[in-house]
Amino acid sequence: MNALFASDNVTSACPEVMDAVIAANSGIAGSYGDDEWSLALKNRLSEIFETEVEVFLAVTGTASNALALSALAPVFGKIYCHELSHINTDECGAPELFTGGAKLIPMRSSNGRIDASDLAETIRGSGNVHVTQPSVVSVTMSCETGTVYQLDEIKAISKIAHDNKMSVHMDGARFANALVSLDVSPAEMTWKSGVDVLTLGGTKNGCLAAEAVVFFKPEMVGNFPFLHKRSGQLLSKMRFISSQLEAYLTDDVWLRNARHANAMAKILSEGLDSFANIKLAYPTQSNEVFVHLPRDVIDYLNSAGYDINEEELDGKAVRFVTAWNSEVKDINDLLDTLAQKY
Amino acid sequence: MNALFASDNVTSACPEVMDAVIAANSGIAGSYGDDEWSLALKNRLSEIFETEVEVFLAVTGTASNALALSALAPVFGKIYCHELSHINTDECGAPELFTGGAKLIPMRSSNGRIDASDLAETIRGSGNVHVTQPSVVSVTMSCETGTVYQLDEIKAISKIAHDNKMSVHMDGARFANALVSLDVSPAEMTWKSGVDVLTLGGTKNGCLAAEAVVFFKPEMVGNFPFLHKRSGQLLSKMRFISSQLEAYLTDDVWLRNARHANAMAKILSEGLDSFANIKLAYPTQSNEVFVHLPRDVIDYLNSAGYDINEEELDGKAVRFVTAWNSEVKDINDLLDTLAQKY
Amino acid sequence: MNALFASDNVTSACPEVMDAVIAANSGIAGSYGDDEWSLALKNRLSEIFETEVEVFLAVTGTASNALALSALAPVFGKIYCHELSHINTDECGAPELFTGGAKLIPMRSSNGRIDASDLAETIRGSGNVHVTQPSVVSVTMSCETGTVYQLDEIKAISKIAHDNKMSVHMDGARFANALVSLDVSPAEMTWKSGVDVLTLGGTKNGCLAAEAVVFFKPEMVGNFPFLHKRSGQLLSKMRFISSQLEAYLTDDVWLRNARHANAMAKILSEGLDSFANIKLAYPTQSNEVFVHLPRDVIDYLNSAGYDINEEELDGKAVRFVTAWNSEVKDINDLLDTLAQKY
Amino acid sequence: MNALFASDNVTSACPEVMDAVIAANSGIAGSYGDDEWSLALKNRLSEIFETEVEVFLAVTGTASNALALSALAPVFGKIYCHELSHINTDECGAPELFTGGAKLIPMRSSNGRIDASDLAETIRGSGNVHVTQPSVVSVTMSCETGTVYQLDEIKAISKIAHDNKMSVHMDGARFANALVSLDVSPAEMTWKSGVDVLTLGGTKNGCLAAEAVVFFKPEMVGNFPFLHKRSGQLLSKMRFISSQLEAYLTDDVWLRNARHANAMAKILSEGLDSFANIKLAYPTQSNEVFVHLPRDVIDYLNSAGYDINEEELDGKAVRFVTAWNSEVKDINDLLDTLAQKY
After folding, report:
1. Does residue C191 share a domain with residue C326?
2. Before D38, cis peptide (omega within 30)?
3. Whether residue B221 sits in one domain with residue B123
4. Burial letters for C6-38: b for 16+ Cβ neighbours within 10 Å, e otherwise?
5. Residue A143 phi, psi (nearest 5)
6. Which of A336, B145, D28, D150 has the greatest CB tally within 10 Å of its CB?
7. With contacts defined as CB-CB under 8 Å, which chain A residues touch D75?
């Protein structure tokens, strides 16, 4: 219970997803994705994104991100990303491994989001044989500070990328949280805003372990099936992953889960902000709340059983994450605990 | 139904494993393996193998094999394996990716198993800077021809390896099938015979997707946790993998499943062998049966709805694989179908 | 003196090449190949090969081979080569490094040369996502047993490669020796026989350190300039490499050097063959002579000051290599020394 | 002539070095560094650095830097360097290739040099499996802005590195220029200040193509000989590289060359600084002069035949580089040309 708000990956899977896994466990099925669940998922995603997509599955966000990047960046490529991005800070070099050595260029725009004008100024070296080549821009939705890009921000970044013959990757580990925050369509938030390849996360928002690499331009798939297999992410009994995502994306399960998580984050954020000496580090726009807490308050919460997650962002901040099954009661308990300190 | 004997990965998960996954889906739990199921699994494996082991999980055999090799081979290393081994033929270069370019040396001993004296003759170049360096021997149990190494064969290979300062890896994708075939203990088949690192498969024998890299010498773990994370196989909700293997290894589930599969293979093998013009390609020692079939018989079976799996081994052979839930009735159906042709 | 016949890389550079280096050491010149010598070399090679070529330089055969392969093989590619080939046995994994993990498939045709029908039978797995993909065939001229492919053999191999959508690489570390042995034109021995990319060696035949990667189809160059730079082979003062090869290829220097080396090998080969108990391991077709020598004769020669080079080929053999400046007197000394033993 | 000040790599080799190459071209010699010149060089370097060193040669700064880093950083390692450093900006990903994917962490301290306190704050994540691991700090002498670290600055950086169990690499592409600028001993500027591995450049300061990777702690060499061979930098006729460096380091050739180049830079720097509207971008401490020039002045110089090298540093700046053979007359010509504009 103490790790309650440590991350959205400490939660269980939601009932709709679990039921789908149980249902998929029946009879024989083709292996390596040659099964009805995988086919249904591809169709579901094409419907949701309002365009024919190609889909490849993975079981971790690290793998799906690194795989997506490996489809877009040559070994001598530059991948522009925010300094705080998961691909830059939390994947222990997986992008470098999967791409064969592409270089991540960490940008330091404010609030954890890449600024289009910073990007334009940073891109350089195209065609110069001494220099790694501008290849990809990666944006995260929602991003590592819990904020979201506005559609016109994504469009501006994509335009710069495409003008420079680069591709656009979106790390959608918390895609649904950003989507309901913006209240736009999946198509609007991705390919209609210039995103070429998406890694769509399910794990944090109600799945057991399910992530998808979604290509909006089938012609960009190229040799990706070989890269996918070679990475160790082509499961033999793929139906157990496909079925998770298929249920997750059916009947708005993913959106309901995300709306709940975001609503809980809002309650928590407002509660924390009401304390005189607690300051929000970033505006709360999805399911992550970042606050600056004095050291003694951190110690107090830890001693009270909370497993406080301190992050190195622009400065230190404490992260609280809500999930599809967070309860108001638990939030109130946390706020009450804090109130006793103040 | 037509893919019934195509592979043991077309089957569902067994009830004990599925129940464990359902049970694990409760409450919050530490992520990345910091959970009770992962701890229990480590203890279970240490008990089963009669020694303190270190365990890292993965979701595909390709990943677990490639990861294990990456712990043992330097980038300029040689990995001796059989030409037919899964790491050499079925992983699309994952070992090369994960090791950073180590070279697999394909050996051509008969029956799909490395011959110790062939190995001794093949090892060369140690200390010569122009030559990739002998680093690992990899043996498969049961191997790709459905046969098993005898303990003294593993010991002989291990001795040569260790005498040459190399490590021994066992690809145990079908570990349980080999174990019950030999009727020895897990310890005897591995570290007591000189195996340093094992990839222990669960997926083919009743799990959804669960493989373990087992270190018998904790001091060989070294930097492996970073290699593991970097490969995209460190799941956030690891409990859903740990719980599978924990149930699989409890109350002899894995052994019962494997004994059943092997028994079914024996029935099928004898049935096939009783046809005058069907010839076994290899003795049936686990849950895979290989036979030479005339082209017209292959066509006939395919038209009858069987999805025949032709393999390139010493020569072409057709593979039939039984599993934890194969039924005698289905085997008889296959034999009857063949009888109608002959 | 004792290493006299150990290799053709123990020799000095020929005067024409050395003079060219001295001449190039004058004034300022553009760096990284933007100089008159590099331009002249490109033109020279286009003239010699009777087609417009693209040229990239390197200082070792290992680098030039690995670079050439990196232009042709994807990370999940298969490179078919002879088991004895330099890329497979003597480059400590450079091809795997430069290609990002492509897999060398060692073939065991006789005499150190790939047999076209063996190749046809060995190619497999195209389009199968589990399998590394057939991508390149690499042939060596003259090859590691000192023999040469006939033009129709190269053509047969190239046809099979191209029919399978693969590329053809020629390791020409001893290109000139093979060329004068066959007495054909450079064009005939390469692109007219289906070779796509050549690594042309100069070092062994009179240069200080100069190798060229020659593309016969400019459209195959693609991103190679970046791979070249990234490999650390784009010299700033490139004129010192270009000038070597430019002189080497001028006024038949390379051909004269090679003819001399081959002629010396022929004298040595006939001399050795005249001993009753010395047996040639392979026919002598270029500047390498392989013989089977009893152990006591090897010891005797070593004690007489020769630094005997034992090679693991089809079986053990002793290698004697002649060079552009080998002298008949030294050959006679060797034969006399042997005669005293017999 | 127009590229006169574009770089120190547009120059020829100095006579002492050229004479040594000519002298080395005599008789047979052991290959791959087993020759008298290579042995003499190792001894020379041990003498100059006042400690027993291990030496490996390369022909480009890119290769020698990337090789050195590959000895120090694991595949999941972090290499802290300045954002402007050659390894980060001018090697097209060679460090990533040679290290197998280590991550360069670009620091933005002022004047192109890493600030020790910035470094201390930036190092993080040690032992955290999600995070690439702090492994190496790389400093450049003289650095990419033409300035030099003071000894106490190097010591402070080294202390932080070693306190964090990291290694210290020095990119000494312009080692001699920095050395004479500081007027300290080679030992003081390296291992006595905490440097573990040095890449010592010869090419820019009078060699044809010669760089050395120098290990001050032989126990850190480990498997480096295999990495060296595998990178394609182990030349067969190594004497032609060793002899260059051996002559370069004899009789103070390298120091004389560097002193001349630095003196010329000082004259040029003072000349440029005397113009009212030309502003030095950095203090001139070695053989590179950086100035801010208006666009029309750049165009004017280009039209006057100078090949102006614009660099992206903290802001744009124009680089002029002097060399071992720069002449006062040429500097005066440049200044006169500018004077005509102003």
Report:
1. no
2. no
3. yes
4. bbbbbbbbbebbbebbeebbeebbbbbbebebb
5. -90, 180
6. B145
7. 93, 96-97
**Residues of C in Cβ contact (< 8 Å) with B132:** 92-93
**A9 domain-assigned:** no
Decide if A124 touches D, using CB distance below 8 A. yes
Indicate whether C9 belongs to any domain.
no
Distance of CA A3 to the CA centre of its chain: 20
Q: Are A226 and C32 a contacting pair at CB < 8 A?
A: no
Q: Could you tell me which chain A residue has the CA closest to the CA of D315? A: A121
Residue B339 has pLDDT above 50, yes or no: yes
Q: Is C1 within the bounds of a domain? A: no
Task: Tell me: do B170 and B273 sit in the same domain.
Answer: no
Query: Is C260's pLDDT higher than 70?
Result: yes
Q: Which residues of D touch A89 (CB under 8 A)?
A: 130-131
- Please identify, among A215, A248, A281, the residue that sits at the C-terminal boundary of a domain: A248
Mutate to test the interface with C, among B96, B108, B309 (most CBs of C within 10 A): B96
Q: Which residue of C has its CA nearest to B131?
A: C92
DSSP reduced 3-state for D177? helix
Are A267 and A158 within one domain?
no
pLDDT in tens, C28-71: 999 999 999 999 999 999 999 999 999 999 999 999 999 999 99
**Do C244 and C284 share a domain, yes or no?**
no
Cβ contacts (< 8 Å) between D3 and chain C: which residues? 28, 30
CB contact under 8 A, A230 and C76: yes
Query: Residue C301 belongs to a domain with what CATH number?
Result: 3.90.1150.10
Q: Clarify whether residues D62 and D192 are in a common domain.
A: yes
Q: Please list every residue in chain D whose beta carbon sits closer than 8 Å to the beta carbon of residue C62.
A: 229, 232, 234
D138 and D38 co-located in one domain: yes
ipTM of the complex: 0.97
**Residue C1, pLDDT above cutoff 70:** no
| Contacts within 8 Å (CB) and 24+ apart, C120-127 | C120/C160, C122/C80, C123/C80, C123/C160, C123/C164, C123/C166, C124/B312, C125/C78, C126/C164, C126/C165
Tally of domains within chain A: 2
Other CB atoms within a 10 A radius of the CB of residue B23 amount to 12
**Average pLDDT over every residue of A142-148:** 96
- The DSSP output letter for C164 is T
Q: How far is C322 from chain D (nearest CA, A)?
A: 12
- Which residue range is the domain that position D209 belongs to? 15-248
Say whether residue A100 is in contact with chain D using an 8 A CB cutoff: yes
Q: How far is CA A282 from CA A52, A151, A159, C273, in A?
A: 36, 19, 27, 85
Shared domain check, C290 and C148: no
Model confidence at B1, pLDDT cuts 50, 70, 90, reads very low
What is the per-residue pLDDT for D314?
A: 64
Q: What percent of chain A has pLDDT over 70?
A: 98
Of A1-10, A180-189, B307-316, C193-202, least confident by mean pLDDT is B307-316
The span from the first CA to the last CA of chain D, in angstroms, equals 23
Q: Which residue of A103, A133, A309 is the best one to mutate when testing the D interface, meaning the one whose CB has the most D CBs within 10 A?
A: A103
Q: What's the pLDDT at B109?
A: 86
Inter-chain CB proximity B61 and A236 less than 8 Å: yes
* D127 touching A (Cβ < 8 Å): no
Tell me whether A86 touches chain D (CB under 8 Å).
no
* pTM over 0.90, yes/no: yes
Give A158-199 pLDDT, tens digit per residue.
999 999 999 999 999 999 999 999 999 999 999 999 999 999
Q: Does A93 contact chain B (CB < 8 Å)?
A: yes
Q: Which of B127, B73, B124, B123 is nearest to B103 (CA)?
A: B73
pLDDT in tens, D65-85: 999 999 999 999 999 999 999
- What per-residue confidence (pLDDT) applies to A311? 74
Most B CBs within 10 Å, among D54, D165, D226, to test the B interface: D226
- pLDDT at position C306 is 86
CATH number (domain holding residue D238) = 3.40.640.10
Name chain C contacts of B97, Cβ cutoff 8 Å. 75, 100-101
Q: Is A74 in the C-facing interface, judged by CB distances under 8 Å?
A: yes
Q: Quick: pLDDT tens for D129-173.
A: 999 999 999 999 999 999 999 999 999 999 999 999 999 999 999
Answer yes or no: is A282 within a domain. Answer: yes
Last residue of a domain, one of A248, A271, A293: A248
Helices (H), C116-189: 116-122, 151-163, 175-182, 186-189
